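User: Let's play a game. I give you a shape written as C-alpha cells, and you guess the letters that built it. Ready? Here's round one.
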C-alpha cells in the first residue's frame, strides 16, 4: 500500500488528531451530558482522520479499506449529537430506557452494509478512480441505502439542533450564547455539505470538504469548552465575587446539577469533596429534603434548616434565587447558605433579656405600688394614732386596746421591709454569698421562735420535727430569709386552728427541708408563675396583704446556694414546699 502525502490530506490528518485529542480530554474531564459532545467530536475526528489517509493512497482497493474505517465515525456522529442535545437539555428518559439505544440502530445497520457492500452493493453501486485532480480520489456511484444514510444523518443533526434551540431560545444571555455556538456547530457543517452536494463548493471532482467543516467547528467548540468554560454558568469576575462572599454559594443548572460554587460552600457539608461540577442536587441534599424541595420549587424563597455533623449542629439560612430573564423559563438556580447559629443564639438571648427586663420593670412598678400602699398605710396609721393620743383624742386605754393590732401590722411591715431590702440588694449590686457550716435544726428553731407569736394569733400550731445536728453548707442570712418566708407564708394561708408542719427528710448528699400547711392551696396558674419566677400576690386567710416578693426571693436564694425547690399543692387541702441544700459533715469538736 503506497502513501503519498498532499496538503489536503496532511491538513485533515493533523486537525483530526488535534480535535480527537481534545475530545478525549473533554469526555474524561467533564460530566455526563457534556461528555457526549466529546463523543460527537471524536466520531468526526475518526471520520476526518481516515478520510485524510484515504486521500494519500493510490488505488481503489486501498481507498475502500480506509473508507470503511472512516464510516465508523461518520455514522456515529449524528446519533451522538442527538444524545448530547437530549442530555444537555435535561430530557427525561427514565420511563423510556429504549430511546438512546434506538438512536444507534440505523448507524449500526449502515455500517454493517458498508462493511459488506461487496456482497450486495446497497451502499455503493460501483467505485472508480478519479485522476483529474492533483491526486487520486475515490469515485462512487450511490446505491439504494446511501440516500437513507444521508437523510437520517441530516435529520439527526437537525433534530439535535432543534432540541437545543427549543430549550434555550428564551434563556439568559449566557445560555443563549452557548446555544448559538452549539447550533453553529450543528448547522454549519450541514450547510457546507449541502453546498458540496450541489457542487457549489468543490475544489475539484470527488473531494469532500465536509470533514474540514466539522473539524473546524468542533475545534472552536473544544477551545471554548476548555478555555472559557462554555458549559458552566460563570459570572463575570467569578473569582473576585464568589470567593469573597462569606455565604456559601452553589449554582445549579436547569437539570439541578452543580455548574459552579465557592469555597465557602464546602464548610456546610460533611464531605466537601462531594461538591464538584456536575454533581446532582439529590446527592448533595439527600439528607436534607427540605432544601431539595426549595431548589425544585424554582422560586425566590428562604428557609431555615439545621445541619448535624460529628455530634455538632448549627442552624443555616438557605436562600434560593432563580436565574432567568424577565418572563423567561428558569435556566439555573443560585443557592446561598449562611450560618446563623450565633445570630439565633443572640436573638434568643436578647428575647430572654427583654422578657426578664419587662418582668423586672413590672416588678419595680408593683413594688412602688406596694411601698405607697402596704408600707405607707401602716406607718402613717401608727403616726396618726400617736398624734391623736398625744392630743388626747384617743385615751391611753383605747391606745392599749389597739396595740395588738398595731403590733400585728408592724410584723407584716417588718417582713415586707426585710424582703424589699433583700430584693433591692440582689437587683442593684448582686448578692455576696458567704457559704458556711450551719446547723439546719438550730436555724429552723430560731425562726420558729420568731414566728410563734404570729402563729398563736391565728390559733395555728407550728410543729417542728428535724434531725439533731443536721449540718448544711449555705449562706446564713439567705437561709434565714428562706425559712422565715416559707413559714410565714404557710401561716398566712392556713385556716385558724390548723397546723404547719416543719420537718426534715434524709437525703444522701443533700439536706431536705419541708414546710407543709393545710390551708387553701395554690391555684394552677399561680404555681406556673412560681415555677417560672413571675411575682404574684394573694391575700391571706385573715385578709393579710402580700408583696409577691417573698417566694421570689426564696426561689432565687435557693438557686444561689446550689439547692432546689419543688412545690406540691391541692386547692382546699394545702401546700407543701420542699427545698434541698448541700449537706455537710458534722464538725469535729477539738
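Assistant: Ready! My guess for every position:
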Amino acid at each position: 500500500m503506497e502513501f503519498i502525502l498532499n496538503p489536503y490530506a496532511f491538513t485533515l490528518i493533523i486537525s483530526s488528531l488535534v480535535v480527537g485529542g481534545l475530545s478525549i480530554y473533554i469526555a474524561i474531564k467533564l460530566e455526563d451530558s457534556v461528555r457526549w459532545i466529546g463523543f460527537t467530536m471524536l466520531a468526526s475526528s475518526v471520520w476526518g482522520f481516515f478520510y485524510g489517509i484515504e486521500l494519500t493512497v493510490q488505488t481503489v482497493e486501498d481507498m475502500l479499506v480506509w473508507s470503511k474505517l472512516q464510516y465508523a465515525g461518520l455514522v456515529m456522529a449524528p446519533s451522538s449529537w442527538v444524545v448530547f442535545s437530549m442530555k444537555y437539555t435535561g430530557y427525561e428518559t427514565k420511563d423510556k430506557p429504549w430511546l438512546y439505544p434506538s438512536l444507534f440502530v440505523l448507524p449500526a445497520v449502515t455500517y454493517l452494509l458498508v462493511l459488506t457492500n461487496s456482497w450486495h452493493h446497497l451502499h455503493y453501486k460501483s467505485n472508480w478512480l478519479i485522476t483529474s485532480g492533483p491526486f487520486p480520489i475515490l469515485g462512487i456511484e450511490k446505491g439504494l441505502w446511501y440516500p437513507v444514510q444521508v437523510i437520517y444523518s441530516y435529520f439527526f443533526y437537525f433534530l439535535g439542533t432543534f432540541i437545543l434551540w427549543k430549550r434555550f431560545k428564551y434563556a439568559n444571555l449566557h445560555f443563549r450564547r452557548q446555544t448559538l455556538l452549539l447550533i453553529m456547530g450543528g448547522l454549519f457543517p450541514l450547510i457546507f455539505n449541502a453546498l458540496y452536494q450541489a457542487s457549489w463548493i468543490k475544489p475539484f471532482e470527488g473531494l469532500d470538504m465536509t470533514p474540514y467543516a466539522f473539524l473546524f467547528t468542533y475545534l472552536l467548540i473544544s477551545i471554548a469548552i476548555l478555555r472559557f468554560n462554555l458549559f458552566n454558568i460563570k459570572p463575570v469576575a467569578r473569582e473576585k465575587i464568589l470567593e469573597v462572599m462569606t455565604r456559601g454559594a452553589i449554582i445549579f443548572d436547569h437539570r439541578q446539577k452543580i455548574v459552579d460554587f465557592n469555597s465557602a460552600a464546602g464548610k456546610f457539608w460533611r464531605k466537601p469533596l462531594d461538591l464538584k461540577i456536575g454533581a446532582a442536587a439529590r446527592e448533595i441534599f439527600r439528607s436534607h429534603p427540605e432544601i431539595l424541595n426549595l431548589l425544585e420549587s424554582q422560586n425566590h424563597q428562604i428557609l431555615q434548616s439545621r445541619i448535624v455533623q460529628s455530634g455538632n449542629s448549627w442552624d443555616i439560612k438557605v436562600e434560593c434565587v432563580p436565574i432567568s430573564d424577565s418572563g423567561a423559563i428558569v435556566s439555573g438556580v443560585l443557592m446561598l447558605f449562611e450560618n446563623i447559629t450565633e445570630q439565633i443564639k443572640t436573638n434568643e438571648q436578647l428575647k430572654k433579656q427583654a422578657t426578664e427586663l419587662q418582668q423586672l420593670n413590672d416588678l419595680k412598678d408593683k413594688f412602688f405600688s406596694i411601698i405607697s400602699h402596704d408600707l405607707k398605710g401602716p406607718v402613717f396609721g401608727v403616726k396618726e394614732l400617736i398624734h391623736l393620743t398625744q392630743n388626747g383624742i384617743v385615751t391611753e386605754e383605747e391606745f392599749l386596746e389597739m396595740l395588738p393590732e398595731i403590733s400585728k401590722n408592724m410584723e407584716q411591715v417588718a417582713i415586707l421591709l426585710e424582703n424589699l431590702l433583700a430584693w433591692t440588694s440582689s437587683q442593684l449590686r448582686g448578692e455576696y454569698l458567704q457559704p458556711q457550716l450551719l446547723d439546719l435544726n438550730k436555724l429552723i428553731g430560731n425562726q420558729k421562735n420568731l414566728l410563734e407569736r404570729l402563729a398563736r394569733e391565728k390559733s395555728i400550731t407550728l410543729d417542728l420535727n428535724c434531725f439533731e445536728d443536721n449540718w448544711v453548707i449555705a449562706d446564713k442570712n439567705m437561709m434565714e430569709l428562706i425559712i422565715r418566708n416559707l413559714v410565714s407564708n404557710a401561716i398566712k394561708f392556713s385556716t385558724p386552728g390548723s397546723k404547719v408542719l416543719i420537718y426534715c427528710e434524709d437525703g444522701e448528699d443533700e439536706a431536705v427541708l419541708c414546710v407543709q400547711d393545710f390551708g387553701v392551696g395554690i391555684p394552677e396558674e399561680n404555681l406556673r408563675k412560681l415555677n417560672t419566677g413571675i411575682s404574684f400576690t394573694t391575700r391571706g386567710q385573715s385578709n393579710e396583704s402580700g408583696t409577691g416578693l417573698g417566694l421570689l426571693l426564696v426561689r432565687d436564694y435557693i438557686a444561689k446556694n446550689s439547692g432546689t425547690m419543688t412545690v406540691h399543692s391541692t386547692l382546699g387541702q394545702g401546700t407543701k414546699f420542699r427545698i434541698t441544700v448541700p449537706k455537710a459533715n458534722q464538725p469535729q469538736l477539738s
